[in-house]
């Protein structure tokens, strides 16, 4: 196994969480395209930060790589494999946040029977109503 | 200088937290339980990244450098104390950036709606 194949495994696992969150986002009353856009743009911002700061950390000799385990491509001083870190967190965390938040909202709605289901919190026309009690 | 890396991480984390609070992006978001949820998410992200670290170290992909900016406290072979702070920081930055992106997207959608006059 190489550092790159380990990175691919982690990124794939994280993208599975993204896939689930995007597929169920409409159920929580939000547009799936919003989560996709947040994920992609977050990854892009973090990639730029990673190239800058990972390069600084490598230059500072905080850690060293076994060159034989690397693909060999570097962006700045950052091995390309390290770019999988921000990609993984961007895939995992906003999606997990969406899943957790959705549950909290559903629980709130379920805990108050008879009250309108999130109607007052949704901007008019922003999304169709969440299907809380299917 | 010993401890410089940890000091840089701490300073960066404070800066990101100030952005979070000012713009209500993650832990300070205006939704119930935002703080606790952010804590949980940082915990989950940190656990994943630490597992990734331990696997990569065990497989010999990388190891300790000779920087004198490290404190010199090792939690495991090749795993400095600072790495735990770093993985938590990366997780938190991810949530704050995502919050910022969401904020900007929401404003753009709002502007577009207002622009159509509908």
Automatic annotation (TrEMBL), chain A:
Main location: membrane
Pfam families in the cross-refs: Lycopene_cyc
UniProt cross-references to InterPro entries, sorted A to Z: Lycopene_cyclase_dom
UniProt signal peptide: none
Membrane-related topology note: Multi-pass membrane protein
Highest taxon, organism lineage: Bacteria
Alphabetized GO MF terms: intramolecular lyase activity; lycopene beta cyclase activity
Pathway(s) per entry: Carotenoid biosynthesis
Gene Ontology terms: cellular component: membrane
Compartment(s) where it occurs, according to its Swiss-Prot or TrEMBL record: Membrane
GO annotation, biological process: carotenoid biosynthetic process
Residues that span the membrane, as ranges: 6-23, 35-63, 83-100
Keywords for the protein's UniProt record, in alphabetical order: Carotenoid biosynthesis, Isomerase, Membrane, Transmembrane, Transmembrane helix
Ranges where the Lycopene cyclase domain occurs: 10-93
NCBIfam families in the cross-refs: CarR_dom_SF
Record's protein name: Lycopene cyclase domain-containing protein
Species in which this protein is naturally found: Cellulomonas persica
